[in-house]
User: Fold this.
Amino acid sequence: MQGGPDGDWIDRFQGLKRLSPDIRSELTGRSSIVRVPAGQVIFGPGQPPEHFLLLLAGTVRVHQVSEGGQDIVLYRVDAGQSCVMTTACLLAHEDYLAEGVAETAVEAVALPRTAFDRLIAQSAEFRTFVFTAYSRRITDLMRVIDEVAFGRIDVRLAHRLLNLVGPNDEVRATHQQMATELGTAREVVSRQLQEFQRRGWIEQSRGVVRLIDRTALAKLAEA
Assistant:
């Protein structure tokens, strides 16, 4: 669903506050507000990017599936951020290689590709905003690659459990969901959770992991 911009959304993005009046006018005049429900696919492999997206509310999960069927979460886009995958594809004029899904209900500003190209060429401030956000995200993405390639799965799993824990010391996620977050196989996560349980750090039931010894998990997560 689309509509006109709701108020002066530009000031929600720190790097856009310095735009000149004419560039602000073009940015708001050419953009639209897009709202999508939770669970909807926003973009996918093989699709060309049509808009530069700036998130106003909600969370978008960007993930990729390998040829062998292994799924990995690359990063999430939250309110106040842009999508590095979309930026890269717009700049390179290439199709998406990953899938973006609305993890929650999402509200975003959508700037058409033609307007994005023109503003990149005309405005140093807009160009700085785009490339600053891009460089930060690339750093985050390289960290994910480093963790998947070289990080210890027990350390990463302990860290993830501590990040996901909710009321009553419970993590409500399946082994497959945690494996996707960590970029590994479900069997690997299951074996490691069994080891944590053997040590008395957690208890498991269907779809729920309850943390028994947070101190031990936190010590491992910092290893």
